[in-house]
Design goal:
The protein has 359 residues and is α/β, with parallel strands linked by helices. It folds into two domains: 171 residues, P-loop containing nucleotide triphosphate hydrolases (Rossmann fold, 3-Layer(aba) Sandwich), CATH 3.40.50; 182 residues, Glutathione S-transferase Yfyf (Class Pi), Chain A, domain 2 (Up-down Bundle), CATH 1.20.1050.90. It is 41% helix and 23% strand. It contains nine helices and 14 strands. α4 packs across α8. The longest helix is centred in the middle third of the chain and has 40 residues. The mean pLDDT is 94. Bound molecules: adenosine-5'-triphosphate (ATP) and magnesium ion. Magnesium ion binds next to α1. Adenosine-5'-triphosphate binds next to α1.
């Protein structure tokens, strides 16, 4: 898949922008704070309906305006399609697919697929579990149509259960919440486990290649429930909520469930979070992100658009080369602050955009 054209109106620091991308490599270069990342953010937004750097949609609307609009013309092997998203201060997001308004904006998720890689992702192994859960959830949002829906239902009920725990327990209401959480949560856990199984196979092979066979990478899902069929996960999860209520009341929140789960990564048999060097951790993060590309290709039949935000300068030359030279069939949109870095690569077709103050 690739994006042919992007139009932005009142999005971040863009008043009105139209750009045409190339199927191959697209480079956005310019000084700091000009609007390079804003373009990647917009492209990522039409695929996930989320920003990779804020949970507040109103931050995406240009200061002093009340609505932001993103339109993208894209191409898949089946043909061209358009996605439009309207973000508004006063009302819910709206989305259109091929000019037709969708009843829920979230139905647009999964039409355009992207993988975004920014410097924060290089800390995927080092940071707390939130970033790794977000990594799995973002991926599953794109490839499993109901995943996003179940995740938001789960989070909503979780919030209500936590409020109930703090306010004082109403046993029958608590049981309703526990049943709902078990229903939605088992869907999340089941899909995450399946995803990690696929990810671990692809990632192991990729990581071997990137490290010239020196490192074996193993990924495992970490949580109270890490295997089983949907039905059995649901039953076990329900019991977990039931049995942990005393502990939950003491702590003041729901202590069990997929909201606490994590991924564990081992390099040559050793826990990478605690023992791997910074370079090893970054390379493993790169392998994880690149595996995302292969998984999306496997699930949808199309390569996603790869958005690389400022990561080149954070990687050594060998890893940079690997990124740009090994992904021949993937459309890449890349931000950098200096064009000098590009001369080292054997790229035939590229288009370069200079980004300056929202232009
Ligand atoms: P860097 O090289 O530092 O990463 P960049 O070119 O990626 O820079 P962006 O993150 O795209 O820069 O941001 C460009 C500018 O957009 C910033 O100066 C910021 O002040 C501005 N900006 C952010 N949000 C809004 C908004 N809602 N309305 C107007 N301007 C905004
Ligand atoms: Mg930036």
């Amino acid at each position: 898949m690739f994006i042919k054209e992007l139009e932005l109106i009142n999005f971040r620091n863009y008043l009105n922008l139209k750009i045409e991308f190339l199927k191959g490599l697209n480079v956005l270069y310019g000084q700091n704070a000009q609007g390079k990342t804003n373009v990647l953010e917009a492209i990522n937004f039409i695929s996930t309906l989320k920003s990779h750097r804020t949970s507040k949609d109103r931050e995406l609307i240009k200061w002093g305006k009340s609505k932001a609009y993103i339109k993208a013309n894209l191409n898949k092997s089946l043909g061209d399609f358009t996605v439009e998203v309207l973000i508004s201060e006063m009302s819910k997001k709206e989305a259109k697919l091929n000019g037709i308004k969708l009843s829920r904006a979230s139905e647009v998720i999964g039409n355009a697929n992207t993988v975004i890689f920014s410097p924060e992702d290089l800390r995927l192994l080092k940071d707390g579990p939130d970033i790794r859960r977000r990594f799995i959830d973002n991926e599953l949002n794109q490839i499993k149509p109901r995943y996003n829906y179940y995740l938001s239902l789960y989070n909503k009920v979780l919030l209500e259960r936590n409020n109930l725990i703090k306010k004082g327990i109403d046993k029958s209401l608590l049981d309703v919440y526990d049943q709902q959480l078990a229903e939605y949560g088992s869907f999340l856990i089941f899909n995450r486990i399946e995803f990690i199984k696929k990810l671990s196979i692809i990632c192991k092979l990729l990581h071997r290649k990137i490290t010239n066979g020196n490192e074996e990478l193993v990924i495992k899902y970490k949580g109270d429930i890490i295997d089983g069929e949907l039905k059995s996960i649901k039953e076990r999860l329900y019991s977990l909520y039931k049995n942990s209520i005393e502990e939950d009341i003491k702590k003041g929140y729901t202590s069990k469930g997929p909201q606490r789960d994590d991924i564990e990564v081992f390099i040559n048999g050793v826990d990478a979070k605690h023992y791997a060097s910074q370079g090893q951790q970054r390379t493993a993060a790169l392998s994880l992100k690149l595996s995302e590309i292969e998984i999306i290709k496997g699930e949808t039949g199309e390569y996603p658009i790869l958005l690389l935000d400022d990561v080149m300068s954070e990687l050594d030359l060998q890893r940079q080369k690997y990124l740009l030279d090994s992904l021949m069939d993937v459309q890449i949109i890349l931000t950098i602050t200096s064009l000098n870095d590009l001369e080292k690569f054997s790229i035939n077709r590229k288009r370069i955009f200079e980004v300056s103050n929202g232009n």
